[in-house]
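Journal club prep, notes for RB
We'll compare a predicted complex against what the paper describes. Inputs for the glutamine case:
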Amino acid sequence: MKQAKFIFVTGGVVSSLGKGINASCIGRLLKSRGLKVFMQKFDPYINVDPSNMSPLQHGEVFVTEDGAEADLDLGHYERFIDENLNKHATITTGKIYLRVIEKERSGGYGGQTIQVIPHITNAIKNAIYNGASSSGADVVITEVGGTVGDIESLPFLEAIRQVRRELGQKNTIYVHTTLVPYIAAAKELKTKPTQHSVKELRSLGINPDIIMLRSDKSIGVEQKKKIALFCDVEDNCVIEVKDRKNIYEIPVVLKEQKVDEIICNHFDLPCGESDLTDWNFMIDKVNHAKGEVNIALVGKYVSLKDAYLSVYEALKHGGIENGINVKIDPIDSETITRGNVKNILGKYKGIIVPGGFGERAIEGIIIAIEYARCEKKPFLGICLGMQLSIIEFTRNVLGYKEASSRELDNDCLMPVIDINQNQNHPLRIGAHAIYLEEGSLISKIYNNNEISERHRHRYEFSNSYINLYDKSDLKLTGKSDKNIIETIELNNHPFFIAVQFHPEFKSRPNRAHPLFAQFIKIIKNGSEVHNVKI
Ligand code: GLN
């Protein structure tokens, strides 16, 4: 079996450095050289996964094909390397401890005393090696969440230190990312925080091979040399990652500094030159985009952009595909009333309602959906967005005012959205096949009658009400093999589509998801979708 190579990405100085983006960009570059890349994220928190964390604290929960609930960085990974990841890509302290404790409870350690070293660190190393074996990757990139110096990340750092001990220098690379702040009063960029952070890392036995400097100003050669000297890395291994408006340009920035060459030489990997033709074509499209469409994103968690990160990205991808800039304004559904909806949403060319959980701030969303329906504004509803679209139509068009969802009102008289009784897992999660009705708008958009999309929901359309819509403009156009309604669309509307799944997770910058691409296209062209050639 071939020996996989391992790249470990750590961060220092401050959090939110863009470690995940840097790691993803390295992944893209290596993939563009023909290498098979797998990526994984280690999160130092104790939650087993982020599924029970508030999106307002933690940001979106990303879902993999095989139904793992993960940190949003996995979304960056998938968008950059364009590979579907799996459950081995997301590891937390909680998950590691759970594994070790379960094994201990079942007597799997034969009487040993269980300790952080070696048992926890061994479980972490297994997770790293599983990433390689489950994917067959040439290179596994592991991002260690948190900041060097945090108590929580110590076992992860110790484990990655041991990996070099086991596999040797030629099979491992440590990339450390730091911040180089600019002090306006002194008109100077400061390298000291980087030096301290590397010192901290070295005290844990990890000597970085590559240092990536995040900065909003260009870092001069002298400063880089200084960092190389103090941190004991080669001059060419100090990489500058200056802030970019378009994050998708960063692989190119890294390539200019030969990051891929440094890595491949270090690993002694036989591979071709990197080919970013496709990627550069996409960047070119971004740079030549003309005009702008504005879209209102009406949701519950709008105070944190990260809560809907993949939706924002997918909308941008739709813009890239259509050569137009997309401006997305988050609108807090709690602020929307019947009295002000026109004022708030009137100026937008399109409305999107993403997913959400719980009964708070729902009525405002329903009012926004009604507005999109009546004003014939292009509308895309995702997950909760589909459930509320059905409720809105049932209440306001069919006249059943009591229609609701069991999630919003447990005792409701007409639960058109109800809990799935056959669910063993609390959520229906991961990829499922969906069958689209021949001739429906959505099947034309996908250019296919059979698709697969990722899910994360507990409630669903109740089939007891299926006949209610027979003669109406609301068409139930897609279902799963278990007869779960997956997609709806409205007749007599330019573009009103809502789906039970999360198309945003499968959109890529250079291959926009068809629903987002078409949503933006309709808004851009402002024409009747039924007459537009799809
Ligand atoms: N809260 C709804 C459900 O559980 C919708 C979930 C979502 O939007 N992801 O079914």
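Talking point for the session: The first helix runs from residue 19 to 31.
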